[in-house]
Recover the amino acids of this structure.
């Protein structure tokens, strides 16, 4: 008998063991109730074949274990199916009419209670579910003991004390087995919940890492990570653009000093050493590939109290900011020149006009041998007056009158004057015009001044036999005027200052001619740029936007 009883206990645990083996992946959560219900139904039928009767006539039947576990953990549909299996199996074992009354009484009490608790069973915590399982075990135990007492006069042998003792052993075994089954199922659920939580945390972590990686790679800042040994561990896409043609594989594992050496630059001190020695943050202006970068070096903190885990280099391209700052400085100087011109022009021109008139009068009355001196004085007065006129043109802020004009026609008007100036210098003019050039709004007086200034600058940069090329081009969005010489050229370090007021490369220049040219071009909605090679020559390119391309 005890062997059969032990076998029933093992069979009662079978659904739990099968469930723990099968329920190993979170993806199987949706079919877990069905699996529990099927296993419990099979075990109920299997336990029927191993039901034993003690010497006192007590039935040792553990089919209630899978019946209770499957009903609670399987849900209402599974509970209904197990109830059908239970009732059918019990009906086949009934031998007396009073046993029908006992079964009906049991079902009348058990079914409403069970079906009332099943919907909220899944919402309880682990302790609440185990407590409810225990309550149902006690209910079934009380019913089982009551049924034994009812049938004791008819079928049981021995006195009531012995029957109750044996029944208590059965009830204890039943309760322990049921609670253990519920406990192991709860462990299975908790294991899967931990897997789900771990998967969710891992997924969130990967998402955050991916977002952070995308932020770093798509950031407009140069970002480079170094480890504790000063070697590069990561560079973002912006850094790769800055250090091109170097690629990512060329940079990884490079030391900080080797990285700077590859780029051909240096820093005042080694920031890597200072950061690793405990400094929190360093800032410095560094030039990389002819661009200015505001760089920040900061330490990468490890876990609290674990020290530094490397260095982070962040670089912000401030080249454009420096250029804009230079533009602001240039505009301030232009404004200063305008204020100076506006305040002193009339005060100077009136005395100069008087002086020139008297000098010219004295020249007419002076001896022939002194006329040379008066001629020099008159030339210098005229030169002074020309400088004042340049000041006035540079300081113009008023709206100039423009009308559609053809650049080719303007050049044809100026060509005799330019040819005369070139002949005096022993130079020649190469005029190349685009016959399809479109008209643009312009002030002819200012545009003539622009062409004459650029032409004379080119002639002055060449020796005799030089060739000045003046060219017009009709491009899709702009009309270009190109003035090229084959003179000495302009050094690269002076190109950036070329349009600043008072900056000149000539011995006797005032530094206002090109500043005036820039002012005229900007007033005509255009841009001017310079291309120059030392020893080969210089080309000034003035591009004027067409009306439709504004």
């Amino acid at each position: 008998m005890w062997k059969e009883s032990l076998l029933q206990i093992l069979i009662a645990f079978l659904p739990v063991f099968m469930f723990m083996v099968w329920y190993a992946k979170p993806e199987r959560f949706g079919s877990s109730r069905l699996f529990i219900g099927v296993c419990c139904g099979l075990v109920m039928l299997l336990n029927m074949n191993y039901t034993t009767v003690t010497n006192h006539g007590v039935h040792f039947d553990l089919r209630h274990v899978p019946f209770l576990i499957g009903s609670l953990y399987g849900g209402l549909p599974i509970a209904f199916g197990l109830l059908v299996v239970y009732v059918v199996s019990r009906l086949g074992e009934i031998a007396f009419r009073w046993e029908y009354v006992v079964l009906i009484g049991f079902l009348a009490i058990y079914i409403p209670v069970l079906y009332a608790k099943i919907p909220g069973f899944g919402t309880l915590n682990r302790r609440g579910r185990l407590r409810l399982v225990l309550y149902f075990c006690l209910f079934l135990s009380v019913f089982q003991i009551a049924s034994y007492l009812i049938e004791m006069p008819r079928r049981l042998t021995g006195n009531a004390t012995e029957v109750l003792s044996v029944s208590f052993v059965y009830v204890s075994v039943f309760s322990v087995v049921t609670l253990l089954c519920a406990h192991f199922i709860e462990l299975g659920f908790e294991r899967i919940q931990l897997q789900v939580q771990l998967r969710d945390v891992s997924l969130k972590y990967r998402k955050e890492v991916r977002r952070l990686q995308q932020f770093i790679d798509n950031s407009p800042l140069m970002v480079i990570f170094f480890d504790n040994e000063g070697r590069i561990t990561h560079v973002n896409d912006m850094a790769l653009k800055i250090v091109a043609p170097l690629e990512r594989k060329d940079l990884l594992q490079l030391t900080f000093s080797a990285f700077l050496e590859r780029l051909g630059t240096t820093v005042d001190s080694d920031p890597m050493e200072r950061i690793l020695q405990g400094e929190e943050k360093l800032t410095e202006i560094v030039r990389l590939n002819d661009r200015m970068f505001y760089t920040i070096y900061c330490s990468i903190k490890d876990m609290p109290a674990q020290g530094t885990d490397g260095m982070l280099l962040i670089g912000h391209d401030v080249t454009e900011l420096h250029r804009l700052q230079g533009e602001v400085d240039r505009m301030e100087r232009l404004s200063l020149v305008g204020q100076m011109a506006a305040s002193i022009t009339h005060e100077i021109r009136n005395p100069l006009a008087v002086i020139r008139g008297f000098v010219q009068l004295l020249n007419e009355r002076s001896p022939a041998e002194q006329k040379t001196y008066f001629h020099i004085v008159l030339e210098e007065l005229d030169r002074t007056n020309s400088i004042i006129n340049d000041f006035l043109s540079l300081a113009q802020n008023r709206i100039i009158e423009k009308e559609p004009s053809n650049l080719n026609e303007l050049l044809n008007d100026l060509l005799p004057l330019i040819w005369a100036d070139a002949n005096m210098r022993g130079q020649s003019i190469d005029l190349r015009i685009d016959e399809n050039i479109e008209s643009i709004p312009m002030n002819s007086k200012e545009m003539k001044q622009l062409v004459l200034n650029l032409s004379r600058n080119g002639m002055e940069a060449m020796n005799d036999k030089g060739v000045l090329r003046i060219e017009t081009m009709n491009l899709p969005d702009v009309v270009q005027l190109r003035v090229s010489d084959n003179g000495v050229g302009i050094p690269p370090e002076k190109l950036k200052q070329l349009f600043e007021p008072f900056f000149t490369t000539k011995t006797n220049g005032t530094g206002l001619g090109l500043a005036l040219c820039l002012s005229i071009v900007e007033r005509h909605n255009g841009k001017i740029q310079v291309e120059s090679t030392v020893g080969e020559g210089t080309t000034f390119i003035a591009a004027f936007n067409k009306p439709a391309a504004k």
In short: The domain at 220-317 is CATH 3.30.450.20 (Beta-Lactamase). The chain has a mean pLDDT of 80. The first helix runs from residue 2 to 22.
